[in-house]
Design brief:
Layout lengths: L4 H26 L4 H11 L11 H14 L17 H13 L5 H8 L3 H11 L3 E4 L10 H18 L7 E10 L10 E4 L15 E9 L2 E7 L12 H16 L9 E3 L4 H4 L1 H11 L3 E2 L26 H13 L3 H12 L2
Parallel strand pairs: 2-6, 6-7
Antiparallel strand pairs: 1-3, 2-4, 4-5
Helix pairs in contact: 1-2, 1-3, 4-5, 4-6, 5-6, 8-10
């Protein structure tokens, strides 16, 4: 057998790619399946310079997928009909694993049953007809809440029927906490099942935050108002601070809108809103046109809040967070407020 120089070059390239691929796969596993971290560790392992050539993310992912599927970084040539992991036995194994732990990710399910992620995903979707249901965050209702909500709706319908302009005179208000770290990311939660389990997840968020008050109506928006002291530090919303906000901020703002003498106010049943002195301050502004706990129209407890687009670009400081809140509130078009009001009117 004649061995040429080209043959040695071929062997050298083959083994270099082989060892490079194994090293890249090892770094990928070692760094939590991060392609960027794998490239960084690869550069350190081979003592490459800052701008030294390393395998691309596509190459690392290609080698990793081959390794997961065949046990080899290099693609094996198919021999006859490809084998399938979707056997009746494997389908039963995956079903039992998912039923035991429906909140586990596909990666963890695959590790538990010692199968590839692709095979587990195919079995879940094609054979078991399971779906990854998203997390739902809802208010928990008590038994008496349903009747209170029904009575509130009936009273509101009566007010709308008695006054065609009732909704145009209504201001809906509330506070909200905006955490600097964002909110519960529902994209990270799945519940694998053949029918929707309507799972509810409660998760406290204890981070730096701001407390914001705002009111909306058909005619526009009042706010945002940040509850903070003179140094810009967050303060708790108390009855006295709520009264101060009504007198120093809401009253002058309200005079810029029509129907001031006939305006209705909605607020929830928070203690700072329903304390005796708070309700007295609210009634000084709105008379007997108060929708609230202990108000002229009782506001039902545990009513849902609106979500926000503040976190579409993640703020890094509290000042940036407040700026994003102001931008989003000021960007709400008047047409949207009108459409919301008309939608409520004709439902």
């Amino acid at each position: 057998m004649k061995i040429t120089c080209g043959y040695f070059i071929y062997l050298f390239i083959f083994f270099r790619i082989f060892f490079y691929s194994l090293t890249a796969i090892k770094m990928f596993y070692k760094n939590g399946d991060s392609l960027t971290a794998a490239q960084r560790e690869f550069r350190r392992f081979y003592n490459l310079g800052r701008h030294g050539a390393v395998p691309s993310k596509h190459a690392i992912k290609y080698w990793f997928n081959n390794f997961e599927e065949t046990g080899s970084a290099l693609k094996k040539k198919p021999t006859g009909r490809p084998r399938s992991a979707r056997t009746p036995q494997n389908i039963d194994v995956v079903r039992e694993s998912v039923l035991r732990s429906p909140r586990r990710s596909i990666r963890k399910q695959a590790a538990a049953v010692e199968m590839s992620r692709e095979s587990v995903h195919r079995i879940l979707t094609l054979d078991l007809k399971f779906h990854p249901y998203k997390l739902q965050i809802v208010q928990q209702l008590r038994e008496n809440d349903y009747q209170l909500r029904l009575e509130y709706c009936q009273q509101m319908i009566t007010n709308i029927n008695n006054d065609d302009e009732f909704l145009s005179k209504l201001w809906m208000s509330d506070e909200a906490h905006f955490h600097l770290t964002g909110y519960v990311n529902k994209q990270n939660y799945r519940y694998w099942a053949d029918t929707n389990p309507n799972e509810v997840h409660e998760r406290p968020l204890r981070t730096s935050k701001v407390t914001v008050w705002c009111a909306v109506s058909l005619h526009g928006i009042i706010g945002p108002y940040f509850f903070e002291n003179e140094q810009g530090i967050l303060v708790t919303v108390t009855a006295n601070r709520y009264m101060e906000m009504l007198q120093s901020f809401v009253t002058p703002e309200l005079n810029n809108f029509p129907h001031v003498q006939e305006t209705w106010c909605q607020q929830d049943g928070a203690t700072s809103h329903t304390a005796r002195q708070s309700l007295e301050a609210v009634r000084e502004l709105f008379g007997n046109r108060v929708i609230s706990r202990f108000g002229n129209v009782p506001w039902p407890p545990r009513s849902p809040d609106l979500s926000s687009k503040v976190y579409t670009t993640r703020p890094r400081t509290l000042d940036e967070l407040k700026q994003r809140i102001q931008e989003e509130i000021h960007s709400i078009p008047a047409e949207m407020l009108q459409r919301v009001t008309l939608y409520l009117l004709y439902q």
